[in-house]
Design a protein that fits this description.
Blueprint lengths: L2 H14 L2 E7 L7 E7 L1 E2 L5 E6 L3 H8 L2 E7 L11 E11 L2 H10 L12 E16 L2 E6 H4 L11 H10 L1 H12 L7 E6 L2 E5 L4 E5 L7 H24 L1
Antiparallel strand pairs: 1-2, 1-5, 3-4, 4-7, 5-6, 6-7, 7-8, 9-10, 10-11
């Protein structure tokens, strides 16, 4: 695999997971790293978004030193050494952007209640470098030039796309989930769409279905969804007919 393919595999693994280990520089034990588990999502550009409390120890650490890491791993494999994993290294900065909050709430609706405490804020980890291990012998450094996607208008305006899918194409999404992940859900909802794939939910679970190609436009996203729907219908048509 070339570096673009390696970066895509690493990013799709990171999008398929929903929590990681945040590494910060300890202020109470200078010189030692401090790890904590946090939910996250990746922006379309490839930066990680976390939602953390001002009183949390990791937040205090970030305010003292914004250099952090986020380690993400696939916990489906029995052999932890064979699991895919990604470590994102970058600088954490507090942000206040409505589309970031909207996407986070779509993926983690329980976080709505955190706003009532008044001390939770969104932080974006601006990626500088990525370490990707795809299994034994598949070990790579991924420079941000290959990881980063240029910001496009559709990245911040996915609401219409998501609403359209949820109102008009529930059957297609159900087929896609059944075909790609063998998940049987009659009324899934799309809760996120990114250059590398889309997230779906049934209210309790979230699944990520990757695209075959990185999408560089809203038109490309629609084409990928049409392809996935067609493939699912063709693969599942005997079962549907029976």
């Amino acid at each position: 695999m070339g570096m673009p393919e390696i970066a895509l595999a690493a990013k799709q693994l990171a999008r398929a997971q929903h929590s990681g280990v945040l590494g910060t520089h300890s202020t109470s034990m200078p010189g030692y790293p401090f790890g904590s588990v946090v939910p996250y999502y990746l922006t379309p550009e490839g930066d990680a978004v976390i939602y953390i409390s001002d009183i949390a120890l990791h937040t205090r650490n970030i305010k003292a030193n914004d250099k952090v890491s986020l380690t993400i791993f696939d916990n489906e494999e029995d052999d932890s050494q064979a699991n895919g994993r990604v470590t994102i290294m970058g600088n954490a900065m507090c942000v206040n952007e409505s589309h970031i909050e909207a996407q986070y709430i779509r993926l983690f609706p329980q976080a709505k209640g955190y706003k009532q405490t008044h001390d939770f804020n969104f932080y974006v980890i601006k990626t500088e470098r990525v370490r990707y291990i795809g299994g034994f012998g598949k070990i790579h450094w991924v420079d941000k030039a290959y990881w980063h996607q240029e910001k496009q208008e559709w990245h911040s305006n996915v609401d219409g796309m998501i609403t359209h899918m949820n109102e008009d194409h529930v059957d297609a999404m159900s087929l896609i989930l059944k075909h790609t992940l063998n998940v049987g859900v009659l009324a899934p909802k799309m809760c996120g769409v990114f250059p590398e794939g889309a997230h779906y939910t049934d209210g309790d679970n979230v699944w990520f279905v990757p695209f075959e190609d990185v999408c560089l436009s809203a038109k490309h996203v629609r084409e990928q969804l049409v392809i996935q729907t067609k493939q699912a219908r063709e693969a599942l048509s005997p079962a549907i007919e029976n």
